[in-house]
Amino acid sequence: LSLYFKDKRSLTRTLACIFLIIMATLCKETALAVLGVMVVFDLLRTKSFASSAPHIIVITICAAVFMKFRLWIQRDMPYFDANENPASHATEPLTRTLSYGYYHVLHARQLLLPLCLCADFSGTSVPLLESIYDARVLGIVSLYCSVCLLLFTVTRHTGRLYGMTCCSLLLLPFLPSSNIFFPVGFVVAERVLYLSSAGFAMLLAWALLKWFDSKVSYVLLGVVVLVYSSKSFTRAAEWNDEISLWTSTVECNPRSALA
């Protein structure tokens, strides 16, 4: 992205960025969402669609070809049983929709407030939402309203190019794991938030520097970095061996099917 965000951009640089993204996608499919971030950046940076159309067309064609190639390699769409993704096997559309929405809330909580990180949320770890009167629906409404408010605030700000780029890096990489387009094989997974965490970090730093005095901003940024770094350090220690990993899983989620 830093290569693509240069002031002077050429088709060669665009193709180089696409190549790097495809290489990253071979390691983890969510990297393909960065192509969407490039498209958003092009649309916001230029005043007319015509000037950015060549780059967007190239990005779209390359993304379509690679996705076709990826599906050809896999042959068939994967099947996930009810233990891996219970909501996808719910018979009632309302239950499925509400449960998917609550999965989004859990991912947002993992990103914003990672106090309880868990390696397994399968099975009955997260009960399905079967009614709109479930108290957890308030969390779903709050999340979606917060996202809309964030986008509205950023688009009205003077630095909307950087802000919207951060928002796209925050939201777009999560879409393939959101169960919106197709069911996935997990309820909550930390690994799908790697790119989103980069967008969150950039957006948080931008907001602090814009809304607070420079000295206050640096102090707050320092505190945030210290807190999140300490959590990363302790979480990495939990992955040292299976005993420590599953012990932490039971402490965080006693209903875990695997632990």
Order of helices and strands: HHHHHHHHH
Would you count the extended β strands for me? 0
Instruction: Report the biggest beta sheet as strand number plus sense, adding barrel if it closes.
Output: none
The residue fraction in helices comes out at: 55-70%
Percent range for β-strand residues: under 5%
Q: What value does the average pLDDT take?
A: 82
Structural class: mainly alpha
What is the alpha-carbon Rg in Å? 20 Å
The low-confidence parts are none
Description:
This protein is mostly helical and 259 residues long. Helix content is 62%, strand content 0%. It contains 9 helices and no strands. Helix 4 crosses helix 5, helix 5 (137-155) runs antiparallel to helix 6 (160-171) and helix 6 (160-171) packs antiparallel against helix 7 (194-211). It is globular, with a radius of gyration of 20 Å. The two termini are 39 Å apart.
List the topology elements:
Layout: H1 11-27, H2 34-45, H3 49-74, H4 93-112, H5 137-155, H6 160-171, H7 194-211, H8 214-238, H9 242-252
Helix pairs in contact: 1-3, 2-3, 2-6, 4-5, 5-6, 6-7, 7-8
How would you describe this structure in keywords?
259 residues, 62% helix
Would you kindly provide a brief summary of this structure?
By secondary structure, this protein is mainly alpha-helical. It has helices spanning 11-27, 34-45, 49-74, 93-112, 137-155, 160-171, 194-211, 214-238, 242-252. The mean pLDDT is 82.
